[in-house]
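Journal club side-thread
Mid-discussion, someone asked how the predicted structure for our own chain would compare to the paper's figures. Pasting it here so we can look after the session.
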Amino acid sequence: PRSYAQALPKRMRRLAIRSVLASRAQDARMYVIDGLALEAPSTKAMVSLLAALEIGRSVLIVTGAPDRAVFASARNVPGAHVLPADTINVADLLAHQSLVLTVDAVRRIEALWGGERAGGRSRTPMAPLAVEA
């Protein structure tokens, strides 16, 4: 048995994630919220949040750090998926129609994937990912 898996260079992963995030922001399918302060898991609260944002079919919710209450609140919502910012990938970003980010998640994503060398020889830093909702 042989594994045919190939490692993708970090610069290529960085460019792919940045281009998907830029595409979501340009299409107004990215929502940045202050935070998801849920004391206890509540599917009803998650459904009302997604209804307030007018999100339709599928949504990827990205938090700054792993949050058990947010995960438990969204697991019964059809089409909703929750990830911490450290584990986002291009496949998950492309698999969902909308993207909801917390402010902490945006800062963490910028720290992880917003390096200066992502675009080749250009030395300009990544533009902020903030989008008006």
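Post-session note: The chain has a mean pLDDT of 86.
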